[in-house]
Amino acid sequence: MAKMDFSADFLWGTATASYQVEGAAYEGGRGPCIWDTFSRRPGAVYAGENGNVACDQYHRYPEDIALMAELGFKSYRFSIAWPRIIPEGRGKVNPEGIAYYRRLCEELRKNGIHTCATIYHWDLPQPLQDEGGWTNRNITGAFKEYANVCYKELGDLVDMWITINEPFCVAYLGYLWGVHAPGERDQKKAMAAVHNVNMAHGIAVSEYRKTGLKAPIGITWNPNTPRAATSREEDKKAALISRAFNTEIFIFPCLGKGYPEHITKNFPDVIPLKEGDLEIIAQPIDFIGVNFYTESPEAADEKAPYKYTSKPSWQDTTAMGWPITPAGLERQLLWLTEISKGAFGKAEIPLYITENGCACDDIVTPAGRIHDKERIKYLQKHLAVCADVIKKGVPLKGYYVWSLLDNFEWAYGYAKRFGIIHVDFKTLKRTPKDSAYFLRDTIAGFADI
Ligand code: FCB
């Protein structure tokens, strides 16, 4: 297999998100969030499950951090739960919430682990959703307030900030497809959410610059950069339109390129843009976070709302049914490098893979081991791409595996396991899987044995 050389300062990390791992949903002064509400809706989440207990990281973080340290990870990407910090979404700050993240960061630092905090990974305070959530432009003011509290209270302990995780999922899964909280299906609302999420990101970055804090700040996208299903011109165009709607609509304005032409020309009124907004969104960022799982083939479809549709793939799939497409990661990283070159007058913007991994049907052997060979193969293939694109000039500086632990996989509940550490959800016992040992060896420089 390909030799995988990574520089000594390559940032190896694991990633999680508050609602998916913390539990303690009704403890520590945490307010209600949209996932508490959505998971109560019949049929919304597999088997009616929720994040009330999840992995109980709220209480078990020292054990999780000890495991990370033992495996050699250098960074932990976690998210801050907005309803723990400001339970009503606006106004009163909850000292217990602040104290929790301070304890978490201090424990990470004590173990020599760098702290990467995502400000928003989907657990919106319910009172804000009651005002329309991401569809209401006023949310940007609430986000500004919340981000400032994070900077002020945690700024001395955070080594890297991510404003928002996957704006695509916030806007489209939440407000267009209705498969994530708050579960709405409305094209107009989804487009308002797109714009408000972009605005919130820009505002959070410009507020950050006023604090004098020096840790890098960026955003995490899940760029969908599909390939054309065939070489027919209409399919090539369909792939471009799909990329415009799913990806460029988020990335381009943040990089100072405005909304993509495919949208402004062909669907001129979909974005509720006001004068001055593009300047607010286009704040210089220090890095780009990329979440990658799969790539899809797209074809023209006159009947579809935006005239494109996804076609079946031939590749093997993960337990999510997602095709395994490492070549798509290569295409995507090259494309991102190209489009971000020169943004904000910088020669290049560093990239981090802030999530990559797969769900497998893991089996615990009678001896208590998890030989997750399929996950190891998936990781090997994607890491080989990472090593290779660095040689081709992609400024890739780090890789976070999704996920540290099996956890609450949103609408799939606990049915899909993405962890490199197995969690028995009855006892909450953690057991590193073989993939955790594979990553340990990779980090230690023995990936190709
Ligand atoms: C990403 C999410 C993350 C996790 C993975 C599997 O879209 O950011 O929380 O659920 O998918």
Quick overview of this protein structure:
This protein has 449 residues and is α/β, with parallel strands linked by helices.
Largest sheet composition: 8 strands, parallel, barrel
CA distance, first residue to last residue: 9 Å
**Cα shape:** globular
DSSP summary: helix tally: 15
Could you spell the SSE succession in H and E letters?
EHHHEHHEHHEHHEEHHHEEEHEHEEEH
Can you list the strand order of the major beta sheet?
Answer: 1-2-3-4-5-7-10-11
The ligands found in this model are: beta-D-fucopyranose
Instruction: Give the low-confidence spans.
Output: none
Helix content percent band: 25-40%
Mean pLDDT: 97
Give the beta-strand count: 13
Secondary-structure map:
Elements: E1 11-15, H1 18-21, H2 34-38, H3 57-71, E2 75-79, H4 82-85, H5 95-110, E3 114-120, H6 126-129, H7 139-154, E4 160-165, H8 167-175, H9 187-211, E5 217-221, E6 227-228, H10 233-254, H11 261-266, H12 277-281, E7 287-292, E8 297-300, E9 308-310, H13 326-340, E10 351-356, H14 373-391, E11 396-402, E12 421-423, E13 430-432, H15 434-443
Parallel strand pairs: 1-2, 1-11, 2-3, 3-4, 4-5, 5-7, 6-8, 7-10, 10-11
Antiparallel strand pairs: 8-9, 12-13
Helix pairs in contact: 3-5, 7-9, 8-9, 9-10, 13-14
What would your notes on this structure say?
It is a single chain. This protein is of the alpha/beta class. 39% of the residues lie in helices and 14% in strands. The chain is built from 15 helices and 13 strands. The chain has helices at residues 18-21, 34-38, 57-71, 82-85, 95-110, 126-129, 139-154, 167-175, 187-211, 233-254, 261-266, 277-281, 326-340, 373-391, 434-443, and strands at residues 11-15, 75-79, 114-120, 160-165, 217-221, 227-228, 287-292, 297-300, 308-310, 351-356, 396-402, 421-423, 430-432. The strands form three sheets. Strands 1-2-3-4-5-7-10-11 form an eight-stranded parallel beta barrel, surrounded by six helices. Strands 6-8-9 form a three-stranded mixed sheet, covered by helices on one side. Helix 3 packs parallel to helix 5. The longest helix has 25 residues, at 187-211. The radius of gyration is 21 Å and the shape is globular. 53% of the residues are buried. The site of beta-D-fucopyranose has 12 residues, from loops.
